[in-house]
Amino acid sequence: MDSQAVFDALETVCRNNISLLCGASDLPYGAVAERLVTCMREIQEHGRALEPVVASFTAVYHHYDFDEETPGNGYRTLVKVLLSCLLHIIHKGRYITGNYNGAFFRADHNTCEMEAYCSALCQLRALLHLAQRLLNDNEYGQLYAQHDVELSRRFVQEYSSMHKACFYGRCLGFQFSPTLRPFLQTVVISMVSYGETYGKQQSGLGMAALSLLTSGKYVIDPELRGAEFERITQNLDMQFWKSFWNLTESGFITGFNRISSNPVQVNLTLTLPPVPLRLPLASDPRLSATVSPPIAHSGPGPVHMRLISCELRQGQDSEELQAFSRTDPPPISVSHLPWVQKQPRSPWLLIHFHGGGFVAQTSKSHENYLRSWSKELNVPVLSVDYSLSPEAPFPRALEECFYAYCWALNNCHLLGSTAERVCLAGDSAGGNLCITVSMKAIASGIRVPDGIMAAYPATLLTTDASPSRLLTLIDPLLPLGVLAKCINAYAGIGVDSRTLQPAVESSSLSSLSRDTAMLLSDLTYGASNWIQSFLDPMRPSGGARPQSQRQNEARRAFTLSAAPNSDGHLDYPEGFAPLRSECLAFVHQTSCPIIRNPFVSPLLAPNNLLRGLPPVHIVASALDALLDDSVMFAKKLRAMGQPVSLTVVEDLPHGFLSLYQLAKDTEVAAEICVAQLREIFEKPTHGLRKRQKLEETFQSTNPSG
């Protein structure tokens, strides 16, 4: 994308719109035209100021890439997002000049659209200014301000006060693939509707019904939707996010996922009792190491897992494995499936750790792509349902994942595998656990997996500033307020068991009677607002003020409080000020020493803990706020001489694996992950025969292991 051509086109569009609206006295719409002229002049000013800034980034941002073949870092991303915003403005501006006199031209609607993008452009200009500070203050080639505590503090402060609602209304998802924007709109509307009912004593059915009707006003009033989403993402507690994200595990959604995903012959949920394990040492399999069961915080406890296999293999129907099986789904039995031909054990085994910010979801949420992986790779998949924060903070999840990995090595014959090659795979938080489990294997002296495939992994669990992390000010799926809550929950910061509320549980029709009165009352209120919005489009839904009024108030609020260095905000160029939010976020900066534990933030691990890692294949997204995590971790491993690859996909958000069935772009990204897994499995292992022989010796001399 030629940035110079984009800025030239923007200048032309602004001039054409201003000339059209100011040069003809017979044009209709009066006050609306004045608003549009004001908006176009602001956009023109932003464009002229940003042109040299973008040129300064494009001149140097290639120095921050992983290599020449892998263009990708936060500086590139910010420029890409800005140019995407400008292209939307150019497209809308051309439409206005070409259709302003048309009989069906909606002047107010198009003016609101342009005002929304003008606000977004203003905020992006502020982000580019923050990125300039990072570029100037960081060491050459470094993307994180790990040693500049003050800059990271101010980054958090900017997030807390900057206006973000414009990115969640009319401009929602403009930076992502067009095919994903309807999905993002659905997610945001669902979240704000759920947030409106959250905390009310409703049954699952009552909350769903109320959310359905209250969602109408957020469909037809994007400004209200943006303001409400900003409020939710900034200040609702962790329990809200846990309960909302866990909606993906409701019976209806998981049932739909199973219908739409690849059928498998084995889908077993397993529970491992907390007993010590003995594993051969990698250096000398005649000796063994003892692995204790998870004990952190709550003492010894079971570990839960899910076994998925597209084909029934030897060992998967054994009585020994059935003894570990839970009741849902029912245990596999060949007698119940007489038409199924049992296959020999696979030489491969895939062990998976799911994402969810360490606080939500289970293997059930990720079952759709795990089924696909099992079929495409023809491999058994063992996904670990580790305990979640804040109820079970670090290191409980790591202990459980490491224990499950060790158990799988000892019992691969039950899982339908000979484990000649074992691969760890995970996304986001799961990618972090893949790396840290491998680090524990190195530290324990036991067999290390043959490879890691980490999708958009979290390798630095801090709120340190980086150019890609500036995206948390605009990202609907990973806002900084939510990211900080997840990090602090995993670190056990600010967790008080007395304040934890149980997640909202699904309930049957019989539970509806207890909240019928409240439900009918709220349904009436929600439906009334929705219907009134249809009858009177100019009436702000839910009592919201018009967008232009809110923007002016936000500008005035900043002007009154933004004297240089007097309020703690970063300095901005003279005459420019970003919009400020009407509701401040309370983000706790991650300063606890636990956050910098190398088994929490592997990017900070010393070389001796990372040396010996298997080949690490990272698949990141250019529009992910955690992109710089991946780039810097890959650079660190390469500098140590460790085998590592980095692939950066375009136009997709964090969490694209869970969206792989929604769009062609996400399907392609998921195929890249499969290709990396296949490379790990098919690559010949040096000394494999020797290792197998030594392990056989260990088994014969330690039959009880």
Task: Please characterize this protein's 3D structure.
With 705 residues, this protein is α/β, with parallel strands linked by helices. Among the domains are: 3-149, no CATH class; 265-460 and 601-701, Rossmann fold (3-Layer(aba) Sandwich). Helix content is 47%, strand content 9%. The protein contains 21 helices and 10 strands. The protein has helices spanning 3-23, 31-58, 74-99, 107-137, 149-161, 181-197, 204-220, 222-235, 238-245, 251-260, 319-322, 367-377, 396-410, 429-444, 480-491, 516-535, 547-561, 607-610, 627-639, 664-682, 688-701; strands at 266-272, 277-280, 288-291, 303-309, 346-353, 381-385, 417-427, 451-455, 616-621, 644-649. Strands 1-4-6-5-7-8-9-10 form an 8-stranded mixed β-sheet, sandwiched between helices. It has a two-stranded antiparallel ribbon with strand order 2-3. Helix 6 crosses helix 7 and helix 13 packs across helix 14 (429-444). The protein is elongated, with a radius of gyration of 27 Å. Mean pLDDT is 83; it is low at 496-547 and 550-566.
